[in-house]
Design goal:
Elements: H1 9-16, H2 26-35, E1 60-64, H3 68-80, E2 85-89, E3 94-96, H4 101-105, E4 115-117, E5 127-129, E6 133-137, E7 142-145, E8 150-152, E9 155-158, E10 163-164, E11 182-183, H5 196-213, E12 219-224, H6 234-247, E13 254-259, H7 268-279, E14 284-287, E15 290-296, E16 301-315, E17 320-333, E18 336-338, E19 343-344, H8 347-350, E20 380-382, H9 395-414, E21 426-433, E22 436-443, E23 446-447, H10 461-477
Parallel strand pairs: 1-2, 1-9, 2-5, 9-20, 11-18, 12-13, 12-18, 13-14
Antiparallel strand pairs: 3-4, 6-7, 7-8, 10-19, 15-16, 16-17, 21-22, 22-23
Helix pairs in contact: 2-10, 3-9
């Protein structure tokens, strides 16, 4: 997208000016984050690449994918296995800081804040094939790229990430994003290093505000699909930030959060806090168990498949009614809509023996949820969004995967037991307004805050400052270099 994005003065000052929203200088905020151990927050305690197991064996290691997970794994492998012959297959020469897309959408970052060159993170002695894998052949320890190049390996780390499927929504095309009141913060092209959807969504924020200022109360819908998604809290982040963007001007809209899920959040304490957040905004209605399946772009109608229950026969033994699952199509008219596309694993993985072969995880990388080692191919490991495990499709999870994946890979190479265990850690910085975040950290067992003395369900400026000011430099300078 080539349009110049304009930013309102108050938002730019919040990021670049002398004072933050709470009157504290940006420099003072950074000092406080450092003095209070901010570098360990949200992503847990630091884990240096050198601290894990190492190997001097001369083996062929293949990393597939050049996003956050792939680069993090590559850095650790390069440090832990100095004699290994390492290859990475990644088409993207530009690396995109994807967590920052929401801040672009909110007018606090610009596109240039999100991008760097992957060459800055791939060591010169690593063989970099700028292509994608077309075929995985784990039975013969090789892959084939789109260009037809065969690449053999002894051990492989799969870090292919997640694929967006706007085409699964009937009537919607990617080129519709940015037209007719449609936005989607997710839309990007990693090969070209663009985050088109984030810029479009900032324009959408302002178009929504202008419509609300025009005297008519617009209807804005925010969707969440029936598939796993990257950063499960993002749909609500866009909802609350855009609503706050209007609230600052004493404006409102008819906001509709339409989600395939049955609640605002999986953890009851966080869900209750989000319900309280919603009560502070102008008319937010939740449409639970609503999955967007089609759109009439021209006439601004969104069609959802709604799941609901009706009473069946009464069971005399159980003293209760049988509940019958039903579905129906529901049309909702809108003025503005923010679409989160259905998502899935890359087709090459779906078509390969490496993906789960059954159930709701079909096609996702079949790894053990604790060791991140493939359950049927012990020389294959996973990292990041592509892993078919119960939790973990966030950058924070990929950071925690890094020492687990690489530590167990090295142990496998050395013939040692796999001792590193992933506890399911994931983190969702839920932006409830400009200047406030609920830092929802949890694992397989439930809430897992790194700062347990702070109520994790309370929106705080402290977390906003960390996310806005600290996380991005940590990502570029520490995480991608294997130091966190």
């Amino acid at each position: 997208m080539s349009k110049k994005i304009s930013h309102s003065k108050p938002l730019v000052e919040l990021l670049h000016g002398d004072k933050t929203a709470n009157g504290m200088s940006r420099r003072d905020a950074l000092k406080i984050m450092g003095l209070t151990g901010g570098s360990a927050m949200m992503v847990g305690a630091p884990t240096k690449a050198e601290a894990g197991p190492s190997s001097d064996k001369n083996v062929k290691i293949l990393v597939v994918g050049g996003g956050a997970g792939g680069i993090m794994a590559l850095a650790r492998i390069h440090s832990a296995m100095p004699n290994a012959d390492i290859t990475i297959i990644a088409p993207n020469e530009t690396h995109l800081y994807q967590p920052g897309q929401v801040f672009v959408a909110a007018g606090l970052y610009v596109h240039d804040d999100l991008v760097k060159h992957n060459k800055d993170f791939i060591p010169s002695d690593v063989n970099w094939i700028k292509d994608e894998v077309k075929t995985f052949d784990p039975d013969n320890n090789k892959v084939v790229t789109r260009a037809g190049t065969e690449v053999a390996y002894d051990y492989m780390v799969v870090a292919t990430g997640i694929v967006y499927h706007y085409d699964w929504i009937k009537g919607l095309k990617e080129e519709d994003i940015g037209t007719n009141g449609i936005a989607s913060v997710y839309l990007n092209n990693l090969e070209k290093g663009t985050a088109h959807g984030a810029d479009v969504t900032w324009e959408w924020f302002n178009a929504l505000k202008d419509a609300a200022a025009g005297g008519k109360k617009p209807t804005a819908i925010y969707t969440q699909p029936n598939t796993p998604i990257k950063c499960g809290g993002a749909p609500q982040k866009i909802l609350y930030l855009s609503a706050d963007h209007l609230r600052k001007e004493n404006l409102g809209a008819n906001f509709i959060f339409a989600t395939n899920g049955g609640k605002l959040f999986g953890l009851p304490t966080i869900a209750a806090s989000l319900k309280e957040v919603q009560s502070g905004y102008d008319t937010i209605s939740n449409k639970f168990k609503h999955n967007l399946v089609a759109m009439d772009v021209k006439n601004k109608i969104a069609t959802f498949e709604e799941r609901y229950e009706v009473k069946g026969e009464y069971d005399e033994d159980l003293k209760e009614f049988d509940m019958i699952q039903k579905k129906r199509m529901v049309d909702l008219k809108y003025d503005f809509i923010h679409v989160v596309p259905p998502m899935g694993p890359p087709q090459a993985l779906v078509d390969s023996p490496l993906g789960w072969q059954k159930g709701t995880a079909k096609g996702w990388l079949e790894v053990d949820q604790k060791t991140l080692q493939h359950r049927r191919y012990p020389n294959v490991f996973g990292i990041g969004d592509v892993c078919g495990i119960p939790k973990g499709k966030t950058g924070g999870s990929a950071r925690h995967h890094g020492p687990i994946t690489v530590g167990n890979l090295v142990s496998q190479v050395n013939g040692d037991p796999l001792t590193e265990v992933f506890d399911g850690y994931t983190v969702c910085p839920l932006k409830t307004e400009y200047g406030k975040i609920i830092m929802a950290e949890f694992n397989y067992d439930g809430l897992a805050p790194t700062m347990p003395f702070l109520d994790p369900a309370t929106p705080r400026w402290f977390w906003w400052a960390f996310d806005l000011y600290m996380l991005k430099p940590m990502y570029w300078n520490l995480m991608l270099r294997g130091w966190f």
